[in-house]
Amino acid sequence: MEKVYIIGTGPGELEFLLPVGKNIIKSCDIVIASSRLMPFIPEGKKVIRLEGKYNECLEFIQKNASTKKIGVLVSGDPGIFSFSKKITQMLDSSQYEIVPGVSSLQLACARIGLSWDDLSIISVHGKSLRGLAEKCEVNKKIIIFCDNKNTPTRISRYLTKRIKGKARAVAFGNLSLPGEEIIKSDIISLAKREKEWKGLWLLLISK
Ligand SMILES: C[S@@+](CC[C@H](N)C(=O)[O-])C[C@H]1O[C@@H](n2cnc3c(N)ncnc32)[C@H](O)[C@@H]1O
Fold first, then answer.
1. Domain spanning 105-206, CATH class
2. Where are the domains of the chain?
3. 4-102: which CATH topology?
4. Closest approach atom of ligand 1 to CA 78
5. What is the pLDDT of residue 166?
6. E strand residue ranges, the chain
7. Mutate to test the pocket of ligand 1, among 75, 142, 201 (most ligand atoms within 8 A of CB)
8. What DSSP string describes 97-149?
9. Which ligand 1 atom is nearest residue 147's CA?
């Protein structure tokens, strides 16, 4: 009886993939991943690209989970804002194994020496920003998973109009990847910043 392995590949740089994940990928019959994660797959391996085919991939996983050793690669750690959830909701727990990875959140905190045991975590990926100011008021430290539309500038503009005082803000871009950037600032300055926020960004707001 085979299983589905949901493997966290870390924040981007190949070296962050844990050896356990690397070995499992090598031994899989087939690997499902987005284009961004192709560098983690050894040459010659059978691959299904995830983009635009989420439902087909889920169907394939459900049909083949017990007969093929399927690896599903997700960025960072599978336990946080990940395709992993769809798979674990669909399968029985005996049909899959989760292989942890280093989350972008962990690397962001490590880069600035911040412990994250008291951090609130939010994603605004494809979401409205409504309610975000209230969350920032009640939580001392909040980390926000951004997207191409909800950039650090857009989020800061939203927050400056709604929260009291000058909250500190740190934007983390493309962690571990070429062009990594860490911008230590505050929401008022970030709100004025005209920048093309290319790639992957996290925003830490603290009071
Ligand atoms: C679908 S979520 C996946 C999160 C992933 N499971 C994790 O543990 O990092 C994608 C979002 O994570 C954040 N992210 C992922 N990798 C990143 C990186 N290398 N640098 C900065 N943010 C990153 C960005 O906010 C991006 O939009």
1. alpha beta
2. 4-102, 105-206
3. Cobalt-precorrin-4 Transmethylase; domain 1 (3.40.1010)
4. 6
5. 79
6. 4-8, 30-33, 46-49, 70-74, 96-99, 120-123, 141-145, 168-173, 181-186, 201-206
7. 75
8. EEE----HHHHHHHHHT---TT-EEEE-TTS--TTHHHHHHH-SEEEEE--SS
9. 27
Q: Give the separation between CA 80 and CA 72, rounded to whole angstroms.
A: 15
Q: Cβ < 6 Å from ligand 1: which residues?
A: 11-12, 74-77, 80-82, 103-105, 125, 145-147, 172, 174-177, 200-202
- Atom number of ligand 1 nearest to Cα 83: 1
* Distance separating alpha carbons of residues 49 and 205, to the nearest angstrom: 35
Q: Which of 164, 146, 163 is nearest to 155 (CA)?
A: 146
**Which residues make Cβ contacts (< 8 Å) with residue 149, sequence separation at least 6?**
126
Rounded distance from Cα 79 to ligand 1 centre (Å): 12
Can you read off the two tokens belonging to residue 110?
Answer: 């490590």
Q: Output the residue whose Cα is nearest ligand 1's atom 15.
A: 104
pLDDT tens, 106-119?
999 999 999 999 99
CA of 174, closest atom in ligand 1: 20
Intrachain domains 4-102 and 105-206 with the same fold:
no
Q: Quote the pTM value.
A: 0.96
Q: What would the pLDDT profile of 51-64 be if each residue is shown by its tens digit? A: 989 999 999 999 99
Write the burial class of residue 68 (CB in 10 Å: 0-12 exposed, 13-18 middle, 19+ buried).
middle
Quick one: which of 127, 131, 113 has its CA closest to 204?
Answer: 113
